[in-house]
Design goal:
14% strand; alpha/beta; four-stranded antiparallel beta sheet; seven-stranded mixed beta sheet; 13 helices; binds pyridoxal-5'-phosphate; 369 residues; 13 strands
Amino acid sequence: LSLLPKTEIQNISNGIHGGPDYTELKSLGLDSERILDFSVCCNPYNAPRTVRDSLRNLNLKAYPDSQASELRLKIARKYGITTENILAGNGTTELIRLIASTYFNKGEKVLIPVPTYGEYETSSRLAGANIIEYHWKRLETSRLDVCDLVEAIGKESPKAVFLGNPNNPSGDYLKRDEMEKIAACLKDTLLIIDEAYINFVKEGQTAMPLIENGKTIILRSMTKDYGLAGLRLGYTVASVEIITNLRRVCPPWNVNIAAQKSGAAALEAENFLVQSIKKIRQSKEYLVGELAKLGYEVLPSTANFFLVKVKSGKSFRTALLSEGILVRDCTSFGMPEYIRIAPGTKEECRKLIKTIKKLKNEGRLNDND
Ligand SMILES: Cc1ncc(COP(=O)(O)O)c(C=O)c1O
């Protein structure tokens, strides 16, 4: 007797993401505590003391608040919305899955501009949706061709469109008026805008006001903003009707007490975010400049990460990992000649450049010749 899982998951493999693969590190004899990680695009600075203090004396015996009320109240105050417009999640990724399982019927079309964050596709496939891949068309100025995207949406009439803003891994960003243009063309389509990295975009504008159209869902990642990858925390902002529907499917107690408390404390430490964003921009400028000096093509990005053209992302990653440094091989994005780098602290970035120079001199980077 062979017990097969449901058909939708038969072609789904474990998603590839940035971040340490602890089994791989162990097999290489590397200490995960000592790895310099440029492969995840989180705030690289240690969360402020208030956040770490909030993790003391937690009542571990009690289930957490399923409503995450304190956290949602703080988010609501920050953006001038109501708590009924917010649902907290165990990272943005849980919310992406939740949206797909709440809204996508088997066989319905979901339009996903690619390359992008792989969880949009995985979640849609799990729900049995048909993926329509839309290949980003870039204008000369490296801006996305919004008119072309609008045309594609009109032609396909999908149930939903996912848009990373800024997009991972390219760092392309759509301004509010461009988002409004896309939203204006929607009939019976959900527009899911993933703003996981929007705080890192200079003068980045949220599309939150669009939730009033009842078709727009905004995703945010506190994991990224405050460097809480070990805890994971995200939230979604949408109309009361959409949030009510998501809540019906959301598992109870989905956000643990440590994530709820630290998220609420993080929102009180806005200066941390402002200061770290400043430093991340300086690190990014430094890295982009140094990599260009070394002859690498760096693609323009508005975000806290950028793509670098190398000969093979896989072998570049392997070479750096042997020195205890992790970058994102972009093969899984369909871009095997690229790596993605998210700047760390200035000191970490200096170490990265020094290591690349060393590997180059030793002929261990079969890269851009
Ligand atoms: C665009 C995008 N959205 C969401 C996430 C997931 O963030 P979280 O840790 O909040 O689930 C990522 C992580 O790589 C991402 O790149």
